[in-house]
Amino acid sequence: MADTYDFDLFTIGAGSGGVRASRVAAAHGAKLAVAEEYRVGGTCVIRGCVPKKMLVYGAHFAEDLVDAQHFGWTIGEKSFDWATLRDSVQQDVSRLEGLYGQTLGSHDVTIFNERATITGDHEITLASGKVVTARYILIATGARPFVPQFPGNEHVITSNEAFHLETLPKRILIAGGGYIANEFAGIFNEFGCKVTIANRSDTILRSYDASVRDRLLQISMVKGIAFLFHAEFEHIEKQADGTLLVTLSGQEPCEYDAVMVATGRVPNVEGLGLETIGVEVGKRGEIVVDAFSRTNVDYVYAVGDVTDRVQLTPVAIREGQAFADSVFGDREPYAVDHSCVPSAVFSHPPIAAVGMTEGEARNTLGNIKVYQSDFRPMKNVVAGRNERSLYKMIVDAGSDRIVGIHMIGPEAPEIMQAAAIAVKAGLTKADFDATVAIHPTMAEELVLFK
After folding, report:
1. Which of 53, 105, 173, 391 has the fewest other C-beta atoms within 10 Å?
2. Is the separation of the CB atoms in 365 and 396 below 8 Å?
3. Which helix (H) or strand (E) holds 326?
C-alpha cells in the first residue's frame, strides 16, 4: 500500500493492543513498523497481569500445602525461596517477550527498539535520529503507575519494581484500594510478609459489588492483612537501618521495610509529540478518541490504556483488532462494545464480575431481583477452613434478563468467563434454571439460585 510514505502504519508501543493491531494490519497487506523503547509485550506481559498471575499461583501453595495434610498427604519441612520464584517468573516473561517479537517478525513488521516521537505531519523521528513517514499512526503506549507527590515519595516502589525485589520485606505498606493493591496484598501475605493496606477512602474495590468487596475485606483481615482507612501520605523518612518511617494522616508514625503505591495508573503521553500535530488530550492526560479509536487528527489513532477507556488487556487487544480491521481490512468499520466487560481481581480468594452491581441495577432499572448463594466450598470444608464463597446474580424483574453476576471464591475468574457470555447475550434467569448442574462443583450454584 505504501507509496508516498515509508509505511502504511507506524505503531508507537508494542504492548498487547499495539502488537495485535500491527499483526492484523500486516495480515491485511499493510506495510508496518513498530517502535518500542522498553520491551516488546507491554505492561501485561512484562510487568503486569502475566507475571502477577504467576506470583498468585506461587502464593496459593502456602495454603495448599497446609490443606493437603487434611487430605492425607504428609508434608515434610517446607520453606519458601523468593528468588527462585522471582527468577522463574522473569525467565518466562523473557520467553513470552521473544514470542511477541517473533509474531511481529513473521508478519514482516519492522521493529525499532527505541523511542519514537511525532515530529510533523505523518512524520516520526526515532531516538537514533532516523526520520520515517507513515500514512497512519497508532499510539498504543499504555499507562504507568501513578506516584502521589509527598515528602519522601522517592522511597516507594510500584507494581513495576515489585517483581524484581532482592528480598521480601518483613513489613510492607501498600497504598491503594484497587485491584493491584489487593492482589499484591494477598501475594505478599501468603509469602509471610506482614501486610498493611492504607486507603484514602473507606472503601476498597469501589467499582465492585458491595457484598463481594465486603466479603474480601473480612477474609483478608482474618488472613492477617491490616487495613487503614482515610489514611493519606504525609511523609516518609528513610532511617539509618534502611527501614522507612511512614506518617499517614490520622495515624501514628510506623516503620515498614517497604512501601508500595498502587494508587492508579496514568496514560503514557509525555514526549510523544502529540502537541506537534494537535492531538487532543483529556484532563487525565488520556488521548481523546471516538468509538473507532480515532483522534481529532484523522490519520492518528490510539488504543489501550493510553485512552483511559477500560484499562484491561483484553479490551486493548479488541480495540487493536477493530482498528486494524476497520482501517486496513475489506469490511465495514466497526467499534468495540465497552459495555458489559467482565473483570477479575486475583486476590485471595479471587473476585470476578460482569454487568451491573446491585446498586447500579437499582438506580438504573428500579425493579430488580437479587439471588445469592453463600456457601463453604467442599475443599474448605475438608481442610477445616471457615472461608466462605459468595455468588450473586442480579436480574431485571421486568424482563427476567440477567444484568449482573458477582462472585468471590476459588476459581471465580475461570467460572465467570463462561457466565459472562450468558450475560452479554442477554440470557434470562429461566435460561440458567433450565440448565442442568454439573455436580459437585462450585459453578453449579449459578444454576441453582432460588
Report:
1. 105
2. yes
3. helix 313-328
Is residue 445 scored above 90 in pLDDT?
yes
Round to whole Å and give the CA distance between 54 and 59. 9
| C-alpha–C-alpha distance, residues 203 and 256, integer Å | 23
- The pairing of beta strand 254-256 with beta strand 123-126: unpaired
Span 22-29, average pLDDT? 96
Q: Does an H or E element contain 237, and which?
A: strand 233-238
pLDDT tens by residue, 330-358: 889 999 999 999 999 999 999 999 999 99
From 12, 34, 39, 42, select the one nearest 110 (Cα to Cα): 34
Residues 349-447, CATH architecture: 2-Layer Sandwich (3.30)
pLDDT in tens, 193-237: 999 999 999 999 999 999 999 999 999 999 999 999 999 999 999
Q: What is the CATH number of domain 153-263?
A: 3.50.50.60
Helices (H), 68-178: 82-106, 159-162
Give yes or no on whether 7-144+266-328 and 153-263 have one common fold. Answer: yes
Domain ranges of the chain: 7-144+266-328, 153-263, 349-447
Report how many helices (DSSP H) and strands (DSSP E) the chain contains, helices first: 13, 21
Q: Report the distance separating Cα 307 and Cα 266, nearest Å.
A: 10
- Catalytic site residue 439? yes
CA angle 138, 140, 145 (to 5 degrees): 155
Whole-angstrom distance, CA of residue 73 vs CA of residue 67: 9
C-alpha 255 chain-centroid distance: 30
Give residue 356's Cα distance to chain centre. Answer: 19
**How many C-beta atoms surround the C-beta of residue 446 within 10 A?**
23
The kind and range of the H/E element at 20 are helix 16-27
**Tens digits of residue pLDDT in 225-255:** 999 999 999 999 999 999 999 999 999 999 9
**Residue from 60, 122, 155, 439 carrying the catalytic annotation:** 439
